[in-house]
Structures are given as C-alpha cells and as structure tokens.
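Student:
Attend to each token:
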Amino acid sequence: MLMAKSLLGPLEARPKVDLSYTHRVLDSARATRRYFAKFERIITHLRSVASLSSDEGLISEAEQKILSQYLSDLNNSFTALSYKYLMTNRAPDSGKMSIDKTESGFPVFSEIIQLAADSTQAKKHLKSLPDQERLKKDMVNHILTERSAPTTLQYALAKRIYYETLVNENLFLSQNHPQINWVGKDVERRKRRYIIHWASYDSKTNLPVVYLMVVDDTASRALPNDERRWPRVQDALMAQALSELKLLTIAKGFDEDFDGLHPKSLRRFHLGPMHSHAFTEQRGPIREVLANAIGEEGLDWALAWTVETLISDGQKWEKVGIFKQAPREVYKLDAFNMSGKMDGVTNITRALILPHRAFQVMEEKHADAFAGVRKYVVGHNAKILSY
C-alpha cells in the first residue's frame, strides 16, 4: 500500500478522468421515462426478432427460448432502473443515471454493478419501508390536506417498487453464470448433448452479450451432476466472457481443458448498440438516417444485432501425453473471406432492428451503406418484417 501511495501520489494530485465525452447524464424525470419507455419497446421487438430468427432457421428453437429468457431478464433490470430513477431531479437525493452516449446507448457498466449491489440489500430496505398500499393512502391524504404534490412519498413508493423488483424478478447482471440445458443423448456413440449458456454486461462496450455453446459430453458421468467438472466448467466459461476474445480462442481453449467435452458450436450475441437521435451521438450514415426519420415520437432509433457463429467441421486426434491421444474439434473458418480467419468465426451476421420510417429513409438515401446488413423492420402494428 505504501508503494502504491508513493507511485500514485495524493488523491487530489491525480488527473481526473473526463467522462462527459462518452457519458450522458439523464438529468430529468421526463428524459429518464422517455429513455426506458423506448427500451421497453425495443426489447419487446428483440423477442420478436429472436422468434423470427428461429422460424427462418438462423437459430434453433432451444436457442430462441434461452435468448428470450435473457431478454426478459434484461427487461427486468431496466424496469428496476426505471423505478430507481423515476423521480430524477424531482426529489432530494433521487440520483441521476448515466448512459453511454457514443458507443452503446445503454446504461454504463457501473449502473449494472450498483444494481447487483442493491439487490443484496433489497430485503433489508423493504423491511424499513411501508408497503405500497400504505404509501398510496398517505399520498392521497397528502394531496387532500396539503394540496401539493406528494413528492417525498412518490419517491418512497418508487424505491419500494425498485427493491421489490430486485427481490422478485430475475435480473440481467454484470455476470450471468453458466447454465446447462439438456438437448439429447446418442446411446450408440455414448454421448450426451447440452446447450451451455451464459451472459455478461461487457464493461468495455457497455453492452449485454449472450453466449450459447452446444457441447457433446462423452464422460461416464453427466456433466450437470458431476461436482468435479461442472464448477470448473462454469468458472472457465465465465472467465472467457470478454468481447475482445475470439470465439475460436474460447472454443479451442475449452476443448483442450476438458477432454470429455467437445464444443460443436459457439454463438455470441451482441445486443446493441442502440442508436437514438434523442439520446446518443451517432456517426456515419446511421446519423443521417435517424435525423431524417424524425417525426412521430419514438421512431428515431435503430438497434444493432450482431451474431458471431463458430461451427465444428469435424475432429482430429491429438497427442496429449506420452501414451495418450484425445479428440479435438476442427472448426470451420471462412476459406474465401479472410475476415473469417481474422475474426476466428465461421460467419458473422449483422442486423439492424428499426422502425418503418427509419427504414424508408435508409432505403431512399443510404441503401448502399447498409448492404449486407439484415433489416428487421417494425411496422405500424408492431409486426416485424425481415429484409
């Protein structure tokens, strides 16, 4: 500690980090409510896109169900945050939320970290707060007797609902530890197949990222019941939940560390960034698209949806000891496009989810800039069309 102090110097002498360039503070209740209302609609559309991707054969039905659960958890986290900041700038000590205005459009990583910290104390806070019915009665009495807005009671009610959400709902946190789903069993080849899934809120990109790995298990004991392997598998995968790591690095490392487990496919879903003319600072053609799509409120947004996929193309036997060999997966990389080898994936699918008005502007003025990007367009009746 003495060495660290001498190297860093006194706190007041250290250079301050200016976050105003990348972060935006939502400094009013109106801005906060508009922001979360927009995301509530977007997450609903994301569920529809996941279902449509399953119908189109881009992902399996099992993967679609898992993805939908993570989207539901993400929605719960955002619902909790919306109550936490419901009274921004209207009640003392209400706090203000920060979002990443340049890269992701999502809340900054520290907001998700604090959400997890608050959840550990939520039950204690609920014991000290009156229940919702009592708070609502007190609000009515305040309005009738004081003839003014019951701001402090509204703040208390919002905090009550915030903590109730943390206690009662599944949340998307900074780390969402690996879980395992049974797929099937090949009796002849003596192997079981699972989907292992996990997720993280990436601290560098401020984006939720979901991982789905299809694994064949050839060990004598089923992985979920194996107290020696399953905890090690969870720790290994969670440690690899970093956006900068290539899928090939993650899969090959896992394949080499666990002889009885064979990753047949690995997918990584980047849920974002979210571009909004009202809340973020866009760059490139998407900026002009959203600027020209201004009109009806709530239609000036676009959400990027990127899926990286790595697929096994077979196995080869490798020497793992003096007298021992083990099968290792050989992964299929794009032989005709060098980006496949550079990115360590079989393919990358890039898509945009956007309202019909923004799509019309894109097609009229910037179609070439978005060639090769799949478009999921939200119609007037919230029906999703794929182009």
Observations:
- The longest helix spans residues 29-55.
